[in-house]
Design brief:
With about 280 residues, the chain is an all-alpha fold. It is built from eleven helices and no strands.
């Protein structure tokens, strides 16, 4: 190799190593909020700022507008990855329709309202677990490190919960329509209340299952651990949504279900707040 090209090649290698060293130094720092100027000076001769050093885009945390921008970009990333992996969403829809078809084969006629309600939420629960299980489990270790340097943990968990909420709402509506068509009837007498229950239930499932997916992703048997951890937290949520939907099917006065809607909204709020507050400590590990 000519001497000139060798010097250029060596310079590029040195520049690459310098950038990687800066990234490793950032990840190992006791205080990750160290400014980029201080980090730049660590790798400059004499402590002077090296203007030619290109550092990674570390996120230091900013205003609420910055947070919303991060969440929007991460949400766009989730939809972009999902559009490139169409077999994932197609598999979920196929699972949902297949389960409903099995229920159709077991019940030749329209089941009792209580059985209709129970089957609907059982199908929706398992579909939600399958949909939310891939929130963090499909991400590699290298992607975790990359996301650690590019976005705040609060923005990451909010984007994951938002994406899973939209996904579960879509799956719930698809399952609801197919469920009514295949089982040959609609026993619901208060449709607005039932749809509100499905909307809030999907939000609660998303908040709980996304957080449990983040914890379970650190282990080998991640799917099994996620199901075990999620069940005690989902139990009060399931009891509340089943009660509200039962009132909607029976056609009771909507004022009777208001207190259950408040409880359901409170459970969703607590789940989301705990995920927002506790996820940064899990993200550091």
């Amino acid at each position: 190799m000519p001497r000139g090209r060798s010097r250029i090649f060596s310079g590029r290698i040195a520049h690459f190593v310098q950038q990687k060293s800066a990234g490793i130094f950032y990840l190992c720092m006791p205080n990750p909020r160290l400014s980029l100027l201080q980090l730049n000076q660590q790798f400059s001769p004499g402590g002077q700022t090296n203007k030619n050093l290109v550092l990674p885009n570390f996120k230091k945390g900013g205003s609420s507008n910055d947070m919303l921008k991060e969440v929007r970009l991460l949400l766009y990333k989730e939809f972009l990855l999902e559009s490139r992996q169409k077999q994932s969403i197609n598999g979920l829809i196929l699972y949902l329709i297949s389960t409903i078809f099995v229920c159709k084969m077991c019940f030749r006629s329209l089941p009792e309202p209580s059985a209709w309600n129970a089957l609907f939420w059982i199908i929706l629960l398992f579909a939600s677990i399958n949909a939310s299980s891939k929130s963090f489990m499909q991400d590699s270790r290298a992607r975790f490190v990359y996301m650690y340097t590019m976005a705040s943990p609060q923005a990451i968990i909010l984007a994951k919960i938002s994406y899973n909420t939209i996904l579960l709402i879509v799956l719930s509506l698809i399952g609801f329509v197919v469920y009514i068509i295949l089982l040959g009837g609609n026993p619901i007498q208060n449709m607005p209340l039932f749809l509100t229950d499905v909307l809030l239930g999907s939000m609660g499932f998303s908040a709980v299952l996304t957080s449990m997916s983040a914890i379970a992703a650190r282990t080998n048997n991640s799917f099994t651990l996620m199901a075990i951890l999620s069940f005690p937290l989902l139990l009060p949520l399931i009891m509340t949504v089943v009660k509200i939907s039962k009132n909607a099917i029976d056609g009771l006065d909507p004022s009777i279900s208001y207190k259950y809607l408040v409880v359901l909204f409170g459970l969703n709020l607590i789940s989301g707040a705990l995920s927002y507050l506790l996820f940064p400590y899990l993200w550091k590990d």
